[in-house]
Amino acid sequence: MSTEKEKNGKMGFILAEQVLEQLPTPVMAVNTEFQIIFLNAAGRNFLGRSWEELRGKNCYDMFKSLHCNTPDCCMKKAIEEGRSQFARNEVSSGENRIPIEYYAAPLKDDEGNIIGGLEYILDITERVRHEERLMEQARTIREISTPAIQLWDGIVILPVVGIIDSVRAQHMMDVMLTRIAETACKVIILDIQGVPAVDTAVANHLIKIVKATRLMGSHAVISGISPAVAQTIVTLGIDIGVKSTATLRDALAEAFEIMHCEVRQIRPAGRS
């Protein structure tokens, strides 16, 4: 006859299996040969196969994800290293690739020996779409906030408003170099009047942009240097190494001088 402990153990196992069956996300268990020994209803529905078709099959043949049967497989790492693993992945579903996050943990017996692995999967399709929309919005905002405008023949101005971080600095550099290639301009005016503060990091970004501009055969002029920014640059001991002006008007005059252009005021006819 079964003891009370054995009965309770069987009831606990049955209850655990029922709980896993009702979870809305795929949960799978495999042995050390990566043969499927359990896959709940959500997992079977995900693959569109019955338990009879899946029992004992290799998990990598059923799911066919980007990580399956590779060193990146979290299940493989969990079994070999004896600790939980987590990663993003993509799983095949017909002709579609579904983005997922999956978590794998070693499956152990009562004595602590690893006898396989346990894995559960989260479909993150909506999250990935949301991230892509945010990235597209951020890209649009950067393009709108960093327009390269041809101010004069051979002169392009890049007005900068807001904080300059490494991502935005790279975008500014891309915009400037693209405009130089498109217009063959000789002078780039970088107007930073709208930048609230200039620290060492911002100054380094500006220096990189100026150097890249020079490599393209153009001169760079930085305008919009406020008294506070000028004092900060001096205090930090930063050498920007480029012509700078307080106003855009002065920067434009400097650009005309670089291009050997002279601007004259023409009086209307009939006036002395």
**What's the oligomerization state?**
single chain
Q: What is the alpha-carbon Rg in Å?
A: 32 Å
Number of domains as seen in the coordinates:
2
First and last CA, distance: 124 Å
Structural class from helices and strands? alpha/beta
Shape: elongated
**CATH-derived topology of the largest domain:** Beta-Lactamase
CATH class category name of the largest domain? Alpha Beta
Which homologous superfamily in CATH is the superfamily of the largest domain?
Answer: PAS domain
**Any low-confidence stretches, pLDDT <50, length ≥5?**
none
Overall mean pLDDT = 84
Question: How many strand segments?
Answer: 10
Strand order of the largest sheet: 2-1-5-4-3
What's the architecture of the largest domain, going by CATH?
Answer: 2-Layer Sandwich
Q: Give me the number of helical elements.
A: 10
Notable characteristics:
Transcription Regulator spoIIAA; Beta-Lactamase; 272 residues; single chain; 5-stranded mixed β-sheet; 2 domains; 5-stranded antiparallel β-sheet; 10 helices; alpha/beta
Question: How would you describe what is shown here?
Answer:
- With 272 residues, the protein is an alpha/beta fold.
- The chain folds into 2 domains: 4-123, Beta-Lactamase (2-Layer Sandwich), CATH 3.30.450; 143-258, Transcription Regulator spoIIAA, CATH 3.30.750.
- Helices cover 44% and strands 25% of the residues.
- It has 10 helices and 10 strands.
- Strands 2-1-5-4-3 form a 5-stranded antiparallel beta sheet, sandwiched between helices. A 5-stranded mixed beta sheet has the order 6-7-8-9-10, with helices on both faces.
- The longest helix is centred in the middle third of the chain and has 21 residues, at 125-145.
- The model has no long low-confidence stretch (mean pLDDT 84).
